[in-house]
Amino acid sequence: MVFACNSGLVHNNKIFLSKYRHKERTGEQKYFAAFYKQLGLQLFGEDYPEFF
């Protein structure tokens, strides 16, 4: 991933995933979510409507 630093906010084994506003980046979230699930982090933000 080119913009791996923009994938979300990590704190205490939790990841608050980014939700991208621009259509060019909207598909990235599912790949970041799969990666963080493999690491065993608790995911937040896969389904919230706001952009982060």
Write up what this structure looks like.
- By secondary structure, the chain is an alpha+beta fold.
- It has one domain.
- The chain has one helix spanning 28-38; strands at 8-11, 14-17, 42-44.
- The protein has a 3-stranded mixed β-sheet, covered by helices on one side.
- The model has no long low-confidence stretch (mean pLDDT 85).
Helix- and strand-based class? alpha+beta
Number of helices: 1
The topology string of helices and strands comes to EEHE
How far apart the termini lie comes to 18 Å
| Number of individual domains | 1
Taken from the alpha-carbon principal axes, the silhouette is globular
Compute the average pLDDT. Answer: 85
**Strand percentage:** 15-25%
Spans of at least 5 consecutive residues whose pLDDT stays below 50 are none
Proportion of residues in helical segments = 10-25%
Order of neighbouring strands in the sheet with most strands = 1-2-3
In terms of topology, how is this protein built?
Layout: E1 8-11, E2 14-17, H1 28-38, E3 42-44
Parallel strand pairs: 2-3
Antiparallel strand pairs: 1-2
